[in-house]
Design goal:
Number of helices: 9
Structural class: alpha+beta
Strand order of the largest sheet: 3-2-6-5-4-7-8-1-9
Shape: globular
Largest sheet: 9 strands, mixed
Radius of gyration: 19 Å
CATH superfamily of the largest domain: PAS domain
Distance between the termini: 16 Å
Helix content: 25-40%
CATH class of the largest domain: Alpha Beta
Length: about 270
């Protein structure tokens, strides 16, 4: 699997809103709860840390619905994720990270909208940046967009967002975005920087569906025995999956493996 870095320029909040808000209303009624609930119900099973979620309404440029551990993971209350402008989340994002996060999100919205319907299910995005916790100290989070609803013009009108606490796995670094494409077998990473050039090429052998499943439990701190119990597999089978992943990622421990795969967008 090829990995590359792409350079983006930071953008301001106003530019992001003008570029991505005010889509034409959709003509068919949509039951958001019916569409998103099966995915939301899986968050508890697959999340690698504390999490909260919300739905972005791009037509009216606001958050609608929300759930999870928002009140412990941020200074916000649950009501702040219901019928509220995204500015409330922008305000608790690290000020150095926000212009970069908006640049990532702007790129992703346009990139995803232009994908064919065949490609869309195979492509996932992960963002890494700092957010304020309930004590207003900054910590690292991972943001993913598990599902979106597209209008007839191929624009995103509703997007489900998952925010996961990864402070137990990541303590430092710079904001980053990764786009994992299992259709093409590629992982592209994006950063914002003032440097005029930045490039890196690596090779990563693709992980299997079962390996990713084991990886998620490793990220939660489960032992091989505990993972075997959860997946109804032999302990030796779990150990084999772990060793295969260490070999593929050229890492030496479960902690190094998890940190590496966070950067590659596998979690």
């Amino acid at each position: 699997m090829k990995q590359s870095y792409t350079l983006l320029s930071p953008i301001e909040t106003e530019t992001f809103i003008l570029s991505n808000g005010f889509n034409n209303p959709i003509t068919k009624p949509i039951n958001l709860t019916e569409i998103f609930s099966p995915i939301i119900n899986d968050f508890k099973k697959f999340a690698i840390g504390r999490y909260f979620w919300f739905i972005v309404d791009f037509i009216n440029w606001k958050h609608i619905l929300g759930g999870g551990d928002i009140e412990n993971m941020s200074p916000l209350k649950m009501n702040d994720l219901s019928d509220a402008a995204p500015q409330k989340l922008y305000d608790i994002t690290h000020p150095d990270d926000l212009p970069q996060v908006l640049a990532f999100s702007n790129f992703w919205i346009n990139y995803y909208s232009n994908l064919s319907s065949e490609r869309k299910p195979h492509v996932t995005i992960t963002l890494y940046f700092r957010l304020q916790n309930a004590e207003q100290n900054y910590y690292w989070i991972m943001v993913q967009y598990p599902h979106s609803i597209i209008d007839d013009n191929h624009k995103i009108v509703y997007g489900l967002v998952l925010v996961t606490d990864i402070s137990h796995l990541k303590k430092e670094g710079k904001p980053m975005m990764s786009i994992l494409d299992t259709y093409e077998g590629s992982c592209q990473q994006f950063i914002c920087t003032d440097k005029t050039t930045f490039s890196r090429q690596d090779i990563l052998l693709p992980l299997t569906v079962r390996e990713i499943e084991v990886l998620r439990y490793l990220a939660k701190g489960y032992s091989s025995k505990q993972i075997a119990s959860q997946l109804n597999l032999a302990v030796k089978t779990i150990d084999n999956h772990r060793q295969n992943m260490l070999h593929k990622t050229i890492t030496k421990s479960s902690a190094e493996l998890v940190n590496h795969c966070i950067g590659m967008g596998y979690l």
